[in-house]
Every structure is written in C-alpha cells, then in structure tokens.
Amino acid sequence: MISALQALDELRNGNRRFVSDIRNSNALPTHARSTSLPIGQEPLAIILGCSDARVPAEIVFDQGLGDLFVIRVAGNIVAPSQIGSVEFAVERFGTRLVVVLGHSQCGAIHATLEELQRPTENQSRNLRSIVNRVRPSVEGLLETELKNDFDALVHHAVRANIRASANQLRHGSEILETLIEKDGLLVVGAEYSLETGVVDFFDVQPTTSNG
Ligand SMILES: [Zn+2]
C-alpha cells in the first residue's frame, strides 16, 4: 500500500489532469477494466465527500475503478456510520490517506445557515440531523461581520465545516487516532471549487510519525 503522501500526490496530479481536460485512459470505467481488477480492493485513498451531483470524487481526481473508497453524504458530515466506514477501510485495506472533500456553494451549508438565520418548524427530523452536525462549526460565524455578506459567509462556513469533519475523524475514533500517531494515517481537508474544478488541500496537518 502506498503512503499517505504518495496518495496525496496521486490525487493532486489527477485533479490537475481533470482541470486540464486530460484524462488518464486507465481511469476510464469500462466493464473490461472492471473484470481485470484484483479480487480484493486496494483503494489509494478514502474520500468523505458531499453528495452534490457536481462533485463525484472519481471524476474530479481522475481515478478509475478500484482506486477510491468513497463515502458521500450531504454536507460531508461525520456521524458514527461515516467513522465506521473509514475505520473499516483503513483496517481492511491498509489505506493511509483520508480526504474530507467539501465544495463551494454547498447546499447543506446554505440550508444550515438559512435555518440558523430563520428557523423553521417543519423541517424533517432526518434533515435536521444533518443541519445539527453542520451547525456547531458555522454558527459562530453569524456573530461576525460575515453575517452581512452571504457569499463570504458561505465560503467561510464551507471551510469551517470541512475542518470540523477532518478533526472529528482525527479525534473521534481511537482506531484512527492510534493509526495517525503510529502508522502514517493522514486525514486532510480539501475544498473543490465548482467554479474552477480545482481541489484546494487547505487543511493538511503533517504527521509526526514514522509512517
Ligand atoms: Zn454539498
């Protein structure tokens, strides 16, 4: 299995290809390629991304079948089932890079900010469970000058939410925390720009381990 930093390079290079409209022909998903895959998967990275239809991880990182272990949920939030999925992949496949992939103009962030500014009574309990996980990282922003500039508010809120999810993965699981300390696991936060196609890995905290 490749190291976290090697995997990060692969993703950066893949995103550069995507932005330049160059596709790696090995990444094209075909049935013939699917039948040539090994029996077990060896994903180079685990991606916790938003469900937004415009941000499919395999495409924006120009990766193919078997390359990424992807968890998608509105607002790239971290609930127990997301942590469990990451634990499963790091333990089962040895993958050492986890990317929380948020994006500009995220609808879940919009919905949370709107709910904080104008609470509604009839929001479904299930949708509320997503809003409630985004809320702690963004509500403080409404007490700053950002509250007067909705676009800037959303921009900062998207990043705050990505940082919060990355930190929850870093510290919300003993399994992950131990692997970060002792075995080269790296959890990074990144934002995909719908406007440019560029993924900005803005929250990369280097490991101090020997991994
Ligand atoms: Zn989104």
Automatic annotation (TrEMBL):
GO terms for molecular function: carbonate dehydratase activity; zinc ion binding. Zn(2+) binds at C50, D52, H103, C106. Binds 1 zinc ion per subunit. The keyword Metal-binding applies. Its cofactor is Zn(2+). Pfam families: Pro_CA. Transmembrane segments: none annotated. It comes from the Bacteria. CDD domains: beta_CA_cladeC (cd03378). Keywords: Metal-binding, Zinc. Belongs to the beta-class carbonic anhydrase family. This is Carbonic anhydrase. It comes from Noviherbaspirillum autotrophicum.
